[in-house]
Amino acid sequence: MDMQGTVDAIADAMAGETDRGAVARYIPELAKVDPARFGIAVATADGGLYAAGDARVPFSIQSVSKVFTLALALGQRGDALWRRVGREPSGHAFNSILQLEHEAGLPRNPFINAGALVVTDTILEGHQPREVLGELLRFVRAASGDEAIHIDEAVAASEQRTGHRNTALAEFMAAHGNMVNPVALTCGTYFHQCAIEMTCVQLALAGRFLVGAGDGPHLVAPPRMRRILALMMTCGHYDASGDFAYRVGLPGKSGVGGGILVIAPGRASVAVWSPGLNRNGNSALGTRAVERLARETGWSVFE
After folding, report:
1. Exposed (0-12), middle (13-18) or buried (19+): which is 18, by Cβ within 10 Å?
2. Exposure pattern of 210-249 as b/e (b: 16+ CB <10 Å)?
3. What's the pLDDT score for residue 113?
4. Which of 23, 33, 63, 270 is flagged as catalytic?
């Protein structure tokens, strides 16, 4: 198929959409982003790269970073990680404390905020934050083949100033013995990991390590790749994960910066970005765009 024509048509269609969602305003730096932005990039297993719209404009990947930290944590701890965090969908908002209270400080999965804080705490154990963030950046740069990827310090500082709810989640888990490091260190590391800045092109290229075919970077073993993809399918869109699986049929991970990383196993890595979010905290246009891409390519795992 004409992949470039397909992504061009999707970008053109999204440009005409009026229901674009709302940018995340609880992080001041994200509130400044133009909601008219939309980008899409597709990196195929055979080495193709197709991009349209604002695909080369950098944005804050936010919770998409949890895919990379989970890969690091599984590499370091293996299945021992699951003693501190579950593998089930939450059915609650990504920053909910309600479920955490009912389940004695054990987060449902590594993609909600509480679970991601545990993952960060895990890879931080025995290290300084700068060492962990350096390792994370090396992993992302190796995955994408781009040494220019960096952390946006302004976004990190903005999150640090306003991240009271995440700090509360971490303190609650610490009260239940599920945090190893000082809460301030874990939260500071977490805020900085979420502030990694990438373009759709960089993110699509970085996602190739989960495609499992072609000449992409081989950074994780196939069993670990399958586990990450399974969690992306069942938990990657918070309490809208079931709807995303129903509509798109591909593993994906969203972030409140408006980015979504989607993997078509054996075929391609896809990144979309549009900063307007729906009520579940996922990119409104990004979700529609990958739904259309999956339909036109037949890439759904349920096809």
Report:
1. exposed
2. bbbeeebbebbeeebbebbbebbbbbbbbbbbeebbebbb
3. 94
4. 63
CA atoms of 82 and 78, how far apart (whole Å): 8
Contact 208, 270 (CB under 8 A): no
pLDDT tens digits, one per residue of 130-158: 999 999 999 999 999 999 999 999 999 99
**CB–CB of 195/148 below 8 Å?**
no
Q: Which is the catalytic residue, given 7, 33, 66, 211?
A: 66
Structure tokens at 98: 């309600």
Ordered structural domains, the chain, with CATH: 3-60+198-297 (3.40.710.10), 63-196 (3.40.710.10)
- Sequence-ordered alpha helix ranges (H) in the chain: 3-15, 28-31, 65-77, 98-102, 113-124, 129-144, 153-162, 164-175, 183-194, 200-206, 222-235, 241-247, 284-297
Q: Hunting for tokens 């408006």 — which residue is that?
A: 258
Active site residue 246: no
Half-sphere CA count of 139, side-chain side, radius 13 A: 23
Active site residue 256: yes
Cβ-proximal residues to 5 (8 Å cutoff; 6+ apart), any chain: none
The answer to whether the CB of 106 falls within 8 A of the CB of 178 is yes
- pLDDT-derived band at 99 (thresholds 50, 70, 90) equals confident
Active site residue 190: yes
Whether 238 sits among the annotated catalytic residues: the reply is yes
